[in-house]
Amino acid sequence: MKELDLLKKDWQRNENSFEQVSATDIYKMIHKKSSTIVKRILIISILEVLLWTATSIIYNTDDYLARLKHDEIIFLFKGLTYFNYGVILVFIYLFYKNYQVISTTVATKQLMKDILKTRKTVQYYVYYNLTMIVISLIIGFIIAFAYNPDVSVLRVKIASNGKAMALTIGLLFLTTVVFFAVFWLFYRLLYGILLRRLYANYKELKKIDL
Questions:
Q1: Taking the domains of the chain in order of start, what are their residue ranges?
Q2: What CA dihedral angle connects 144, 148, 153 and 159, to 10 degrees?
Q3: What is the separation of C-alpha 78 from the centre of its chain, rounded to a whole number of angstroms?
Q4: Alpha-carbon distance 61 to 57, whole Å?
Q5: pLDDT per residue rounded down to tens, the chain (210 residues)
């Protein structure tokens, strides 16, 4: 934002003679920066989907699910996967629409509204992904404990020992919390910086609009 700060100082020094031109220049700079940020959000979200898709291909779970010999579990996982991709594609479409709208917005007030709308969309996207991570972990733990033949002996021991059951539940809960924290930090670094810059643009526009 160094260029913007310099432009604002120049605007303030020449407030009487160049106010209109300087305000327009500042708006154009903020507009360009906002459009670039939203474009980066769109690109990152697409790369993220490609990354998770590649990971799921490398670590194929079909063989593991087939060994469980429960078709309903395979159906559940496939349904959850298709639903998840469907929702994420909707978010990517919304990111694209936000980028289109912000790129063509000419009014200051409208740009401010579009920035806030984009921030909310990204926040909802992050909340959704974090929720799906927790749900997937819980379902994975339940399936592994209830259906995986490799843990049948352990399952019997845990079922007959209250302390072992409590310890297992505690470890699974701790594992879920750790995974949630790691992915929360990942999304905070990935999108948080861009959202803070976008909100900084909003505050600058608010000053101009006064």
A1: 2-209
A2: 50
A3: 22
A4: 9
A5: 555 565 555 555 555 444 454 667 778 888 899 999 999 999 999 999 898 888 777 776 666 666 666 667 777 878 888 899 999 999 999 999 999 999 888 788 888 999 999 999 999 999 999 999 999 888 888 877 777 666 666 667 776 776 777 787 888 889 889 999 999 999 988 898 999 999 998 988 888 765
> In whole angstroms, what is the distance from residue 106 CA to residue 208 CA?
14
- Residue pair 37/194 in contact by the 8 Å Cβ criterion: yes
- Long-range contacts (CB closer than 8 Å, 24 or more residues apart) made by 23-26: 23/208, 26/204, 26/208
Angle at CA of residue 170, ends 164 and 172, nearest 5°? 105
Two tokens, residue 63 = 């063989």
For the record, the structure tokens of 45 come out as: 């979200």
DSSP state of 50: H
CA distances (Å), origin 179, targets 50, 86, 123, 133, 182: 20, 23, 19, 8, 5
Two tokens, residue 122: 């990204």
Select from 45, 26, 52, 30 the least CA-distant residue to 97: 45
> Closest by alpha carbon to 28, among 119, 107, 115?
107
Q: Rounded to an integer, what distance in angstroms lies between the CA atom of residue 63 and that of residue 65?
A: 5
Which two tokens mark 23?
Answer: 């305000």
